[in-house]
Amino acid sequence: MKIRDGAVANRPIYVALAVTVEGRRDILGLWAGDGGEGAKHWMHILTEIKNRGVNDVLMLVCDGLKGLPDAVETVWPRTVVQTCVVHLLRNSFRYAARQDWDKIAKVLKPVYTAATEEAALDRFAEFADAWGKKYPAIVRLWENAWEEFTPFLRFDTEIRRIVCTTNAIESVNARIRRVVKARGHFPNEQAALKCVYMAIMSLDPTGKGQARWTMRWKTALNAFDITFDGRLSAARQ
Fold first, then answer.
1. What pTM was estimated for this model as a whole?
2. How many Å apart are CA 192 and CA 11, to the nearest integer?
């Protein structure tokens, strides 16, 4: 979003959305950045979240934020860092001509739906052979993200489904984008954060959306508890 603070600049606002052990959505915080955030920045944020009572995180899904995996490893050593597959696909399309999007999506789908990491690597090699010459930047994008892309391939289908869909965070982002677009720009960082906060608070005024969300997460929570050796059950005690 555009923040004026001396000179107008496009700056990111980072939103941390969590799902609790009961399956409830919770916005853990909002932070303004400058686009050049590294491990030190994320360490400060994650330590703040932990100090507020988040003692364990099973999986953290993010979009290629530099330095974040290292910070997660320090604050929550057992946490699995997973690249958001939807954002990985969207970022791939940025490097391709519009008329090739459907073809690229078709060839990439066997990569993220593969039964194993080995199978995914084979399918990715096929993609690289077919499109690497025309779009080397897409191949490089996936190679750079591979370490954080593959963890979910070891998990239950319910967990995979969550990683491959972004309904929760996308509904938040869509609301924020509408408000920011209507406003245009902001005089300072605090004004921007206040606007985003008010947009988020207006998402589900009746609580009905939260109730539906919690019910839909029941199956996934069972899968998480089994996959992560009872850490979810332990947190409820």
1. 0.81
2. 10
